[in-house]
User: Fold this.
Amino acid sequence: MPRPERTAAILVAAGRGLRAGAGGPKQYRELGGQTVIFRAMQAFSRHPDIFAVQPVVNPDDAAIFNEAVAGLRHQPPTSGGATRQASVHAGLEALAADKPDIVLIHDAARPFVTSAVISRAIDAAGRTGAAIPTIPVTDTIKQVGDAGHVEATPDRARLRIAQTPQAFRFDVILDAHRRAARDGRSDFTDDAALAEWAGLTVATFEGDPANMKLTTPEDFIREEARLAAQLGDIRTGTGYDVHAFGDGDHLMLCGVRVPHVRGFLAHSDGDVGLHALVDAILGALADGDIGSHFPPSDPQWKGAASDKFLKYAVDRVTARGGRIANLEVTMICERPKIGPLRDVMRARIAEITGLNISRVAVKATTSERLGFTGREEGIAATASATIRLPWDDKGWSE
Ligand code: MG
Assistant:
């Protein structure tokens, strides 16, 4: 049953993330093959109880923002202010015309927020009007004075770490932000602090230790390793393809146009290298073969450029939450000579697949003038692909 209240979310992404080191604002950096902001936004965009996701971005970042969150449902981004508080205020004003009942305010630098935490936030705001996710403190916290001497040891049992999304009745938090702006207050580091200042009672609900904020370069290194470890279901596939020579003056090989005394007889562009790679990837996924996805009987593939097929196969891996670990293709022919083209072909495959070139191998061999490849009647190619998938409910056996 749909909830009676209408809930919107603000994604605060206007910060410059200077503490996270070089590489631009941290929310636009990649983590586990996706940008941080994409990960943060998708939990809200795909949540069934959220009708609008309002991003707040730095206007200088408009182009990278659009690229980073392509495909996700969101409102047109609004420009952030000089402080986090001003940015949230701008997001609230941008949503005001839509009259949400509840608003969740989330930092784009927390990419591991789950649908469960979002649901708890909506419930808590509906019950209490103002609520924040917290987690217990496990270390003992010291209050330290200017001289570096311990002044107090607060009772750990009463301390909590505050997270986002913080959740509020929309009209109440908008009013609090307007009052703070009028009073010249701009120093609140989270919305709960502003709400407290405005006299609201702020409740707490159960946060999630995984919903951490990415701050330092070490955070990125550690989380990258953790995400890689989750992709532990490692699969390998192989592919094989042949195309015969016909009339023509060039061949398409591994996505590269190669001048030659012959062409390929083929329904598509006949790129045996890319076709073998597509079958290797589909094989690793146990997801049919190139012929079952792109039937030669279908006229739309006539003369088709084979990079489309390879991109499609890569998308099948991404759709399963996986990543390609490496691709390898071996061309079997007397001519053309592949060696001088090897790195151009590797670069082209890397470009099509989005892989680092160090994960793409192109090899070649002749067949010592034996067989159809030796007689230069055509070219064969073999390929292999290793992919990493997340562990899921598909165990080893039935
Ligand atoms: Mg083929």
About this structure: The CA atoms of residues 1 and 49 lie 10 Å apart. The chain has two domains: 7-230, 233-389. The chain has twelve helices and 19 strands.
